[in-house]
Amino acid sequence: MSAREDILSGKFQKSPAGQLAHTKAGGTGAVADLFASFVGYANATWNYAAQAGGQTAQGLLDGDGKKSAACGTVREALKTLLRDDLHLTDVKNEDINEYFLTKPGLECFDSQVKGNVGNHGKMTFDLACHFSTHYFVSTGGKHYDPCLMAVYTSQDGPIAHRTKVIKDTEGALRKAGTGRSLLILNLLRGRAVPGFGSVWEILLPSECKAVLPRNQFESLKNDQDVKNARLF
């Protein structure tokens, strides 16, 4: 059977991932049923990759077995089913086109993907996902995110903190939050974790000078938000 046939049959709706998705979608109705079946199938069959070039939504639905797909492709596949099989006319894309850290508790449909943010010196990167873009779909006033197996009431649903680049660091340092809660994110070049080609570590103020190249540390100290937070 194709992925589309398996999803529409409801075969994976009662799986743990499917049941979780069903609850988050409201627990009743055709959209909740389809979302649960879709997420259950994705969890059992597909792998997540932030940059899964070449895969199309139609290819996912027409194929079967293991596939790698990015959140945009997975979203398009769900949108196709909502439009073509449930005949919904209000389905539209919801996109976040800026860097952000995900809220705690959100899990990818791919159980191998834990995130790409960790504390300095640790070998685990499961504190959050740091996305540059993210895609989901809305219908009936709800925002369905099959990648993170979640349903939101607004487009900002998955966002814990937006992050901004520290000037003159070539994108290697980013900041999130404000005041004494300001986070410093350092890009670990050459590192990769399941699902992501970029990996970030959170640096405490006391760690920055020892870890960062001198020019980046000076740029960090001169950032206005960092100055306002009096981190150094």
What would you say this structure looks like, in words?
By secondary structure, the chain is of the alpha+beta class. The chain has one domain (3-229). It is built from eight helices and 13 strands. It has helices at 3-9, 16-24, 30-45, 57-62, 71-84, 205-211, 214-222, 224-229; strands at 46-48, 67-69, 92-96, 100-102, 117-119, 130-131, 134-139, 142-145, 150-152, 159-165, 173-176, 183-187, 200-203. Strands 5-13-12-11-10-4-6 form a seven-stranded mixed β-sheet. Strands 3-7-8-9 form a four-stranded antiparallel β-sheet, covered by helices on one side. A hairpin with a 7-residue loop joins β10 (159-165) and β11. The radius of gyration is 19 Å and the shape is elongated.
Oligomer: single chain
What is the H-and-E element order? HHHEHEHEEEEEEEEEEEHHH
* Helix content, binned percent: 25-40%
SS summary, helix count: 8
C-alpha-based Rg, rounded: 19 Å
SS-based structural class? alpha+beta
Overall pLDDT, averaged? 95
N-to-C span: 60 Å
Beta-strand percentage range: 15-25%
Total beta strand runs: 13
Q: Order of strands side by side in the largest beta sheet?
A: 5-13-12-11-10-4-6
